[in-house]
Amino acid sequence: MTAAQTPKRWQESGWHLWWLMVALVVADQFTKWLVVANMDLFSRINLLPFFDLVHVRNYGAAFSFLSDQGGWQRWFFTAIAIAISTVIAVLLRRQPKAMTTANWAFALILGGALGNLIDRTRLGYVVDFLDFYVGSYHWPAFNVADSAIVIGAGLMIYEGFFGQSAKDAGKNAK
């Protein structure tokens, strides 16, 4: 995309989805507040045979990566989240509104990243509370922000394989 193709107004860009990012941050922070206000740390409420609400803290990244490193990882992951969020925000501003799937993907990822960034900077950890499992195997607990990031990443993968740019690449290869 050239500078001439960059939308002149933010309303004509991916930023038209600002409301989605705000809604995700609000939903994420509200659900985390509900868990912290109503559940003791490490408590569990069984809701379905494969799903519990839990109250846990994640001091690391995905799957508690580096959670036992003594505190430096808080600022490391904060810096990474700020850098990635900045890049995604710039990409959203530069993309035309018509790039629907990519814009939704970036908006979901950015909203989720900001939700977890708020926790990490305010608390030093991320509050997780959704626990899915089969038998004794438990998927690592996660939250609304994590869900948005995963859905956004899935949309990006879909766009890469089946979106307009993938179709254009197929036409050019012939």
UniProtKB/TrEMBL annotation:
Keyword Nucleus annotated: no
Top-level EC class as recorded in UniProt: hydrolase
Topology relative to the membrane: Multi-pass membrane protein
UniProt-listed Enzyme Commission number(s): 3.4.23.36
GO CC annotations on file: plasma membrane
Sequence intervals crossing the membrane: 17-35, 72-92, 101-118, 138-158
GO terms assigned for molecular function: aspartic-type endopeptidase activity
Predominant localisation class: membrane
InterPro entries to which the protein is assigned, alphabetical: Peptidase_A8
Record function comment: This protein specifically catalyzes the removal of signal peptides from prolipoproteins.
Listed name of the protein: Lipoprotein signal peptidase
